[in-house]
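Tokens for chain A. Residues wanted.
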């Protein structure tokens, strides 16, 4: 007698296999079991079309959901993608099938076919949409946008209240969708830099509203989001960083330079962390002890007094050193102090938004403490502060070259105010306060929006003035290891050739070997008239246009507010001058480059 059992025409299942299946699905709830049944039915259909009827007959009593959930994200970094991916997992746990897609890959006209959309988007520069969101953002604001009376949507904005146009792109999406007749599932939520708990609550609120409509009862194979990054998953991340070791902090600008730029090397030995050229490194730091003491003195507080941060109890000094954001200033600090102390001067400053922003830009928290030494408790001070967040730096090395190390190019922020020296949080920590051999907490932030072309024969144009050179050092190390045949052209700028030509010998070596085909330099202070990288682009416009026509990828890294905009304007100028295009045609050419992922920016 056979030990096998028949479950349908041509299907035979071994009892041992049946036991394995039973164990695998143990503990799943009804919605999850329904999802699994649809998944298995889809697999069966892929192997035997006749199996569709058998599978569907087991689920015909289950009604189909009244729509689907599409999670669309747009961001210059990985934060929005991380939230979107986590949201998909949370939706799946709730029995809702959802797909995740980058705005860079989303076809704008598809919006008219959606029933439920969740948008997670950051704001870039001065209230602008991030690169991957530009096309959808413009489409929804254009005359081509369709009416959307059947669409339900929710918007989560990621931003920083220190900036004037806080979460502006999210506000734009919210307004434009509502104008087109779509219905908000919940009110838009705008997140500050400490967004984890707020984003999680938004996810829960949206799911609660749409669960009845979208409880997963599908009978097709769900498609997983495309894996664009080859960065290997690690146990180390933003919430659980790796304790690396500082190997080197070396100044690479001359003694007479107006800049102090450091080459930083950190050991990742025994971490298993892997990264790609184009990724960023998150660096956690400790605040300067002297700044902590000045803040304690200004508020006349005892450093040993106990306070609570989240669920942890610690001394005030520890909280200010390890947990509080002190080197940036932000409106929420002024607001918290004004509300907790009732101070009239702070309330007056808070009421004038323009004056408040002008006041905050050049100051750190210590300056506010000195200017407004109000009476408050230790707990009120800690509660007024933002949580300390890691700083992201473009990685300046390829792992194929440096193996278990990671390199950074860091400009020290240092200036005098109120009679004493101020430093940037992470830059001062890495350049001045952390000794070589000491531990530093880090994690890799994957950046799929800043990648070398998959074909090593593709030509590459790189524009990276100042510390924007960092990822292009990684690119060249990677292209060298690949023995890539594609041409490479670097545009680099800084104040002085003799003082500020970062990694000069390395670039010269690449030129000598033939890996680096062209170098165009712009040292702004070496002549009477200041020359920047955008000027060199225009000067070389005919050849730049030839490279682009030949399929070159164009990369920009560095300052977002001025340099990146000037470079983009130079590109438009090149298309108009050498491509004989109108202003609108040049704009469309640039959009086509962006859509093809041939125009990528890593700007800050």
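Reply:
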């Amino acid at each position: 007698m056979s030990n096998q059992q028949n479950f349908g025409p041509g299907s035979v299942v071994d009892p041992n296999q049946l036991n394995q299946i039973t164990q695998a699905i143990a503990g799943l709830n009804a919605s999850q079991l329904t999802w699994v049944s649809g998944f298995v039915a889809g697999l069966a259909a892929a192997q035997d079309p006749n199996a569709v009827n058998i599978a569907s007959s087991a689920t015909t009593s289950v009604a189909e959901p009244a729509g689907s959930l599409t999670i669309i994200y747009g961001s210059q970094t990985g934060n929005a993608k991380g939230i979107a991916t986590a949201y998909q997992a949370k939706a799946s746990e709730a029995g809702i099938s959802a797909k995740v897609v980058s705005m860079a890959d989303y076809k704008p006209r598809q919006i008219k076919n959606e029933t439920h959309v969740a948008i997670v988007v950051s704001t870039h520069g001065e209230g602008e949409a991030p690169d991957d969101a530009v096309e959808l953002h413009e489409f929804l604001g254009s005359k081509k946008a369709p009416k959307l009376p059947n669409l339900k949507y929710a918007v989560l904005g990621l931003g920083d209240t220190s900036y004037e146009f806080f979460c502006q792109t999210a506000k734009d999406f919210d307004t434009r969708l509502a104008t087109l007749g779509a219905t908000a599932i919940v009110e838009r939520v705008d997140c500050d830099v400490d967004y984890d708990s707020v984003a999680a609550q938004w996810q829960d609120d949206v799911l609660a509203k749409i669960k009845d409509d979208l409880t997963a009862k599908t009978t097709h194979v769900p498609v997983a989001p495309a894996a664009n990054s080859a960065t290997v998953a690690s146990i180390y991340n933003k919430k659980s960083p790796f304790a690396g070791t500082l190997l080197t902090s070396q100044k690479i600008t001359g003694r007479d330079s107006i800049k102090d730029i450091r080459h930083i090397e950190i050991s990742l030995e025994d971490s298993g962390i892997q990264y790609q050229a184009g990724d960023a490194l998150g660096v956690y730091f400790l605040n300067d002890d002297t700044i902590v003491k000045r803040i304690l003195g200004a508020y006349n507080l005892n450093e040993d007094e106990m306070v609570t941060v989240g669920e942890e109890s610690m001394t005030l000094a520890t909280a200010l050193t390890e947990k509080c954001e002190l080197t940036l200033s932000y409106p929420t600090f002024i607001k918290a102090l004004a509300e907790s102390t009732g101070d009239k001067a702070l309330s007056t400053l808070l009421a004038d938004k323009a004056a408040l922003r002008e006041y905050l830009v050049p100051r750190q928290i210590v300056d506010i403490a000195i200017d407004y030494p109000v009476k408050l408790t230790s707990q009120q001070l800690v509660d007024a502060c933002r949580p300390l967040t890691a700083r992201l730096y473009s990685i300046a090395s390829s792992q194929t070259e440096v193996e278990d190390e990671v390199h950074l190019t860091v400009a020290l922020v240092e200036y005098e105010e109120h009679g004493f020296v101020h430093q940037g949080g992470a830059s001062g920590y890495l350049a001045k306060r952390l000794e070589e051999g000491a531990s530093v907490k880090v994690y890799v932030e994957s950046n799929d929006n800043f990648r070398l072309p998959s074909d090593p024969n593709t030509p590459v144009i790189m524009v990276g003035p100042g510390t924007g050179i960092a990822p292009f050092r990684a690119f060249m190390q990677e292209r060298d290891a690949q023995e890539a045949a594609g041409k490479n052209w670097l545009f680099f700028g800084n104040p002085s050739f003799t003082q500020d030509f970062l990694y000069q010998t390395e670039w010269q070596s690449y030129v000598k070997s033939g890996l680096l085909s062209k170098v165009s330099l712009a040292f702004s202070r070496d002549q009477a008239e200041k020359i920047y990288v955008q000027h060199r682009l225009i000067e070389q416009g005919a050849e730049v246009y030839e490279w682009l026509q030949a399929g070159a990828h164009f990369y920009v890294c560095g300052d977002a507010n001025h340099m990146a905009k000037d470079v983009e304007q130079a590109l438009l100028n090149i298309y108009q001058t050498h491509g004989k295009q109108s202003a609108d045609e040049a704009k469309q050419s640039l959009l086509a480059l962006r859509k093809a992922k041939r125009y990528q920016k890593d700007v800050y």
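The first helix runs from residue 15 to 25. The first strand starts at residue 5 and ends at 8.
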